[in-house]
Amino acid sequence: MYIGFDISQTGSGKTGCGYFAHAMIKAMLAIAPQHRYALYPSFGDFFFDAKMPVLNPYSGEHVNYGPRHLTRETARAFWNQPELEVALGHPDIIHANNFWTPVQIVSGRLIYTLYDVGFTVNPDWTTEVNRIGCFDGIFRSSVAADWVVAISEYSREHYLRLFPHIPSDRVRVVYPCSRFDDSTQQGSPPTAVKRFGTGEFWLSVGTIEPRKNQRLLALAYARYLEAGGRPIPLVLAGGKGWLMEDFQEYLAKLGISDRVILTGYVSDNELIWLYRNCYASLYPSVFEGFGLPVLEGMQFGAPTLSSNATSMPEAAGDAAMLLTPHDPDVWTQAMLDLASDQGKRHQLALAARARAKHFSWERSAASVLAIYEEAMRSPKRASMNQTMSHMGDPLVENVG
To answer: Which superfamily does CATH assign the domain made up of 2-177+361-399 to?
Structure first.
């Protein structure tokens, strides 16, 4: 097969979507090097990183980079041209990974990675520009994608509720896995926490933004301290997102500014150390497509308290304490209980490592390659839609 694969978000500042694409293409190149691969450092006009592909580690006998664009405007012109397939060299597969979707693919099979549809749930979780861009891409996928790869059962079911016109058998779940290849790595501490030893801090990993629910966690932590909980700091590891500009002021009002450490964006090596050495990993997110920090913390034996919402129980299984993300007192009590119970903490650490072993990039990549092969054997959705339209299907006529 000739596989075109979107790596546009896999640059040095990558987050969840970029980590998925990065690990997936690495695994596919490892298990199926016989295919031809074109890796696209830009893909569409919604997300753009002018530094791509300067630091990308992908190589192989049959691997080449697709067109690189130095500005968003040139990328927009390229990816929206009518003869896109000709410009790309007629790949058999075009796999979109950054929410944007081409709609002019006539012969190749378009595969779309579905992360989540959280932006349709609460407008306060993101900016208007991001919400509109994400919805535009995901709606276009519902019309144009031949196959959708969902990263959780929850995301799959949510997508099908929103877009019932896409055949459900063409939306498949392939779980992401940890970005880390070696579970024995020790890592190194970020500068902000070098003075702390093993078990001397609580940890929460994630971009600082409303959906990740750091406000509730901060309130729960403040109440934990008021209740006499062990006075170890709360470390928030993640870059600045959006709509949380007053977070430092919020911490000050709670009286815990000197107890909460904001590391900012951390390297993989630093994150490994944080997972390995925290007293417990706390993940109170309100909404996730999967909840990768839950799984990655478990890989390094982090005892885990996780939200029980949306997809996160799929990541955590029965290896974490699952809590509602809407009641700070529940989190306060769970932290108090765990802080005073070393036996429970040890049990959670063992369960976490066992749970993480259920996930494998090799298996996930094999599943995606099998979808590619099935897609090549199957008719394009466009031809299916035309057939149904001729039969008088009103829904297909409306969306096509």
So the answer is: Glycogen Phosphorylase B; (3.40.50.2000)
Tokens encoding 148: 């959708």
Q: At the topology level of CATH, where does 191-356 sit? A: Rossmann fold (3.40.50)
Three-class SS state of 136: helix
Could you tell me which of 302, 294, 293 has the C-alpha nearest to residue 268? 293
**Sheet of strand 171-173: strand arrangement:** 63-65, 36-40, 2-6, 93-96, 109-114, 147-150, 171-173
Q: How far apart are CA 281 and CA 269, in angstroms?
A: 17
CATH 3.40.50.2000 residue window(s) in the chain? 2-177+361-399, 191-356
Handedness of CA 314, 315, 317, 321 (dihedral sign): negative
Provide the residue-wise pLDDT of the chain in tens; the chain has 400 residues.
999 999 999 988 787 899 999 999 999 999 999 999 999 999 999 999 988 866 667 888 999 999 989 899 999 999 999 999 999 999 999 999 999 999 999 999 999 999 999 989 987 888 889 899 999 999 999 999 999 999 999 999 999 999 999 999 999 999 999 989 899 999 999 999 999 999 999 999 999 999 999 999 999 999 999 999 999 999 999 988 877 889 999 999 999 999 999 999 999 999 999 999 999 999 999 999 999 999 999 999 999 999 999 999 999 999 999 999 999 999 999 999 999 999 999 999 999 999 999 999 999 999 999 999 999 999 999 765 544 344 344 333 333 3
Interstrand relation of 234-237 and 171-173 (parallel, antiparallel or unpaired): unpaired
* pTM to 2 decimal places: 0.89
Alpha carbons 261 and 141: distance in angstroms, whole number: 40
